[in-house]
């Protein structure tokens, strides 16, 4: 088992109201492996930010007052009160206050990996998060004691979690989502942006498409469960699988978008591991054809007692994963890992991270709305942000080239 002083240290940056809702649910968990309290929620609207802090306080059951929480975990950025559901405004606000964002992040101390979180239908998170990822990876420089320029965060890995709007939502949100996905995947220069881009779709996780607060909480809880399983594998694992394993080969393949597929509380005394993997594969977080997967990782979390008694072993997990990929004729780059959870019993949790799949089943829900609005929105400034025709064409070209490479 990994030593507790060597596990990967994650930090979470969530922007916008939707991203803040997701981040606030981290505080509802009894454990946040590798994260602790390194969570920053950002918004251009102070009222929305205080609502997020209120949810965080409720999850923590803390006596810390609101002002202290705002100081430690929240940042109001930009001079606009909201982004007007137009992503260029969210990006403009982040550009305006990038120095303040960086200073807040430095308060977390050493970080090995970031999880950037945003809902893709809005303007604040969808506008700011792709820009922040790009700047953290490619745009930040510090001065060392000798005054020489040096890159900041050179070894830090940047993953992003983007949530697709409900299919029934207004066209503007689908326009934002298509642009946000492109910008998470590619920089303006056409280079890779996020090291790993994780995706979930509201309508796919809430098939009744209720869209009320209770169902948002259920969706967000599913997202947090997947992140917990993903991060926990790098903290306590019998084998070596961590965020660098998740990102290295998919980046080389230009197939670094992923979706989680999760099955929890499966009885290990009843079900075979391969069946558990099948159960997880039936619960992907976006619409997709599992057979188009190009990279896959399996994380199996079992009670410590089962592992210590050799009721489940690493070779068992490796073998089941190999058999599962073979059965589904998936020729993938990937690994499998066994990680413990506290307690006894026989309940086993399974996370599949499926990457490089055909994105068209997701995009088809939004592309018509995107094209319908593209001509009317390009060149129309709204507040501090603007979107030129050339910028929109670049967003389209970047996404189409990436999707074509990963299409069936």
From TrEMBL:
Pfam families found in the cross-reference section: Tubulin
Domain Tubulin/FtsZ GTPase: 12-186
GO molecular function, one term: GTP binding
InterPro entries: Tubulin/FtsZ_GTPase_sf (IPR036525), Tubulin_FtsZ_GTPase (IPR003008)
Top-level taxon in the UniProt lineage: Archaea
Gene3D superfamilies in the cross-refs: Tubulin/FtsZ, GTPase domain (3.40.50.1440)
Protein's name in the database: Tubulin/FtsZ GTPase domain-containing protein
Organism: Natronobacterium lacisalsi AJ5
Phylogenetic placement of the source organism: Archaea, Methanobacteriati, Methanobacteriota, Stenosarchaea group, Halobacteria
